[in-house]
Amino acid sequence: MKHLKLFCVVASLLLSVSAGLAQSGTCGANLTWTFDSATGTLYINGEGKMTDYSSTPPWRSLVVRRVEINNGVTNIGNRAFISTYLENIIIPSSVTTIGDYAFQSCTNLTSIDIPEGVKSIGNNAFTNCRYLASITIPQSVTSIGNSAFYGCEKLTSIDIPEGVTNIGRFAFSGCYGLTSIIIPSSVTSISEGVFSSCVNLTSIIIPEGVKSIGKDAFFHCVNLTSIIIPKDLPPTRRRFS
Fold first, then answer.
1. Contact 109, 86 (CB under 8 A)
2. Which of 8, 21, 24, 228 is packed most tightly, with the most Cβ within 10 A?
């Protein structure tokens, strides 16, 4: 009961702080944002490109729990929602790229649907989203950036769609809960450390199109007991340590 009271007090203080901060502004040449402190919802309206932030976005100090992005917005900017309280986001089909560090350390985010039309997921886009347990990657995605899902401990499985040609270094490293993964035939190389420390990964099939496997690609995958590799893969390109 004491813990419940303390939680209510903290939540009330956070809402009070949010109420005293700026509740609207611009986030692109033709984009505006508004924040509803009563619901914790951030609205991004307009059309075109969102700003890529080199530091924190203007709503970083607000208690943003939900984001609704207008159809017509073409990207999610770098660091757009880094380290926020985000629990839910609606991404429209007009978005084609998810920027670097866009959702890094959003530890309240448990699931996300990436719409068809998104072509690339940036470096560190979901790094340390520790409770992200479910994600949908559409067929339109061709590139997954370095450390894109690094440290997403709760992910148990993920389907990489056919058409992805690039999976960045350490993209799924530290995904402790990952037990299975499907690598499409469109992938031609397995990057450095890409599945390192996936301690519950038990088996994997590497498609015939893969020409090289990077250093430490499966380092510390202590339960990996079955791996099928292309018969034409040169021995010097097989690196599992």
1. yes
2. 21
On whether the CB atoms of residues 150 and 123 are closer than 8 A, the answer is no
> What CATH number is attached to the domain comprising 114?
3.80.10.10
For CA atoms 59, 64, 70, 76, the dihedral sign is positive
- For the chain, counts of helices (H) and of strands (E): 1, 18
Examine the domain organization and report whether 241 and 208 are in the same domain: yes
Query: Considering its fold, how many domains does the chain have in total?
Result: 2
Burial (CB count <10 Å: 0-12, 13-18, 19+), residue 189 = middle
Domain that holds residue 48: 1-77
Q: What Å distances lie between residue 76 and 12, 13, 35, 99, 230, CA to CA?
A: 30, 29, 17, 6, 37
pLDDT, tens digit, for every residue of 70-84?
Answer: 999 999 999 999 999
- Beta carbons of 209 and 185 less than 8 angstroms apart: yes
| Of 72, 80, 187, 178, nearest in space to 124 by CA | 80
Q: Is 224 exposed, middle or buried (0-12, 13-18, 19+ CB in 10 A)?
A: middle
CB atoms within 10 A of CB 170: 26
pTM for this model (two decimals): 0.86
In whole angstroms, give the CA distance from residue 94 to residue 171.
25
Q: What is the pLDDT of residues 109-129, one digit of tens each?
A: 999 999 999 999 999 999 999
Query: Residues 36, 103: one domain?
Result: no
Cα(77)–Cα(113) distance, integer angstroms = 17
